Automatic annotation (TrEMBL):
One of its GO terms (molecular function) is oxidoreductase activity. Coiled coil: none annotated. It comes from the Eukaryota. This is Enoyl reductase (ER) domain-containing protein. It comes from Dendrobium nobile (Orchid). Residues 21-331 form the Enoyl reductase (ER) domain.
């Protein structure tokens, strides 16, 4: 088998050597460019986005399963250009522009090159920038899967639903608002006061300042009861959700905790009509193709808070952990690999 054209060459990357340490533990290194296995593609990265899962991995939340080993190059949501393909890859060739989700176990996104499974890589047309594309794999896919879990259908067969989206100015939330409005759902959204106009611009019908009286109670200004809640934050008790739900309403948690699972079990055992749904989104190629298509058609946009070069990865990491950016605070920590 012919060797990779990048074999023996090195690249810049950012990695950490163990659990903990936050942004201070990130180290800039020069490492060999990886070679794709038979069903993988080698990508020259143009952009990547940092998600909460990335720094939670560093904190050790998924130990001992993730990461696979140290030192570890974090981040899984990327966009770039195919530099090389494995022997069994037929759908991609060098020069193709793509969006991909890397293995969370192996990471690789904070680097100039990374290997990705061809089964989780999709073509990206010129209308979809690298920055727009790299925000889709985890955040937009999660928004899509949560809405589907709440009863939304994207094939034209769905019924009208009232949905509440908490933390609607965040990565998942900003995509969820747009996707919900794409199929004419009624959207009530919560966010901080400074982001109300942003969330309105995304299409939300009602926007609540989460610190206001009605916002804290999650009460719809028009008195609607929610068929589904896309819950993108933490610290809200079930007792706050329950009075605002329709008879068969459900609250879908994108970051379920131990108490979430306990509440889920209780609702199951008592045959409660109002439900708690813990959700862990699983990347799917068909979802990614659908989302990239929406961006191409101008029906979905990625709200970018700020961009960083690879040399400023520590700043991006710290800002993502801090979580107080305008717009998609935990999604859009982009790096442009041109510095």
């Amino acid at each position: 088998m012919a060797s990779s054209p990048m074999a023996g060459k090195t690249m810049r990357a950012v990695q950490y050597g163990g659990y903990g340490g936050g942004f201070a533990a990130l180290k800039h290194v020069e490492v060999p460019i990886p070679s794709p296995k038979k069903d993988e593609v080698l990508l020259k990265l143009e952009a990547a986005s940092i998600n909460p899962a990335d720094w939670r991995i560093q904190k050790g939340i998924f130990r001992p399963f993730i990461p696979a080993k140290f030192p570890f190059i974090p981040v899984s949501d990327v966009a770039g250009e195919v530099a090389d393909v494995g022997s069994a890859v037929k759908d991609f060739k060098a020069g193709d522009k793509v969006v991909s989700v890397l293995s969370m176990k192996n990471g690789g996104g904070l680097a100039e090159y990374a290997v990705a499974s061809s089964s989780l890589t999709v073509h990206r047309s010129p209308e979809v920038s690298a920055a727009d594309g790299s925000g889709l794999p985890i955040a937009a896919s999660t928004a899509l899967q949560v809405l589907k879990s709440g009863g939304a259908k994207f094939d034209g067969t769905g019924k009208p639903l009232n949905v509440l989206i908490t933390a609607a100015s965040g990565g998942v939330g900003s995509y969820a608002v747009q996707l919900a409005k794409l199929i004419d759902l009624h959207v009530t959204a919560t966010c901080g006061a400074r982001n109300i106009e942003l969330v309105k611009s995304l299409g939300a019908d009602e926007v609540l300042d989460y610190k206001s009286s009605d916002g804290a109670k999650l009460k719809s200004p028009s008195g609607k009861k929610y068929d589904a809640v896309v819950h993108c934050t933490a610290g809200i008790d079930w007792s706050t959700f329950a009075p605002n739900l329709s008879d068969n309403g459900k609250v879908i948690y994108i970051s379920p905790s131990t108490s979430t699972f306990l509440n889920y079990a209780i609702k199951k055992l008592t045959f409660a009509k109002k439900k708690v749904v813990p959700l862990f989104a699983v990347p799917k190629k068909e979802d990614l193709e659908f989302l990239v298509g929406l961006v191409k058609e101008g029906k979905l946009k990625t709200v970018v808070d700020s961009k960083y070069s690879l040399s400023k990865a520590e700043e991006a990491w710290a800002k993502s952990i801090d979580g107080h950016a305008t717009g998609t605070w935990y999604l859009q920590r982009f790096k442009e690999l041109t510095d």
